[in-house]
Here is the input.
Amino acid sequence: MVARLSVSLCTAAFPLLVASAESGAFLEKVAHKPAQQKGESCGTNGFTGVFYGNCASDLNCMPPHFMSPPGTASKCWPGRNKGEVCGVWGSTGYHYGPCLSNLTCTAPPRSHMIGGHDTCQQVCGHFGTDGEAINGTCAAGEVCAGRSNTPCRAWAGECFMYCVNATNHHHTKQQEGEWCGASGSTGYFHGECASGLVCEPDVWMPGAPNVCKEPGKKVCGSFGGGSEVVTSICGDGQACEGRASTPCRPWAGECLMYCVNSTSLTTDTQTKQQKGEWCGTSGSTGYYYGECADGLVCEFPFIGAWLEGTPHVCQEPSKKVGEECETDGSASSVYGDCGRGLACVAASPLDASNSTSSTCHQVCGSFGENHLLRVNQTCSAGQSCSCWTGTPCREWAGECYMYCC
Here is the structure.
């Protein structure tokens, strides 16, 4: 019985040994399968489960574009070249792949991250408040002069330099009134000032970045929002009348006032906005555009142009209720030169005064399809919101209005 059991075990083990030998031969064949070349399918297809093989050592197995049809195979491609997008784009999760071995996949500064891509660059140094430090060499015909966008954080490795064409490169520097140097509150480096300007602290806003300005120009205050704030006294023969160029952002410390010689006030003070130019502060951007010239007022261009946050425009003082008005004849200017909330209404043939002139009336509502009436203003004593503008009119353009009469 023992002899029969031994024979049975040997008989059962023989097929396993044969199968093991065959498996080893299969693995050996897979290990020696020729590597996939440039443009060939690679890896495992996640849709079908088919394995195509591995790429050659100098290639990368790149997944298909995120908009590709299901079942599209990955392909073998070399590393990304200089200036090309690399890494993973956070907006879509699409993987662009690594750079060539001599390049670095560099991320944009955090201040430019929205919609920004990583790019392949030959990093050769870095820059910041202490100047430039070059620690690499560039190819023939190239120089280490390219810079990442500013503002950037030097301590986070965002302020890097890279190789660019020696005869075709340009480094933009900060202009007068723009931020420069490093911000003490955020650590961002904003760049150097252009030739002829100096980077000096903003004396009235602690922690804010420095500002590029002319040498010897003393900051004495700020302006914006219809007021001026003088914070220091100017020297003999000077006045706090110089202003930074507009538009500028008061909240960011850009709307500065400087000491200027009393004899040069006509050239150093800010030129006021003329008719048709933007004025005041934009509610959407925070930029201040300046005051209007004498004889002009800063108002909405016309009632139909009310857009949330849009800057006002310098124009002649608007007409009041009952005053004669004019329009330029276009359908979009039915409000003419009347003030805000008023419409320039042509004289009615039924008017007892027999007047032929258009006059300004208080707009009190609108009308439209399906006999829909919307009254949103109260008329003065003795009047009611019962008069309508003529038709045809465009309801969506605000032309179908009701007015007090």
Remarks:
- DSSP finds two helices and 27 strands in the chain.
- Helices lie at 2-31, 265-268.
- Residues 179-266 form one domain.
- The CA atoms of residues 140 and 361 lie 75 Å apart.
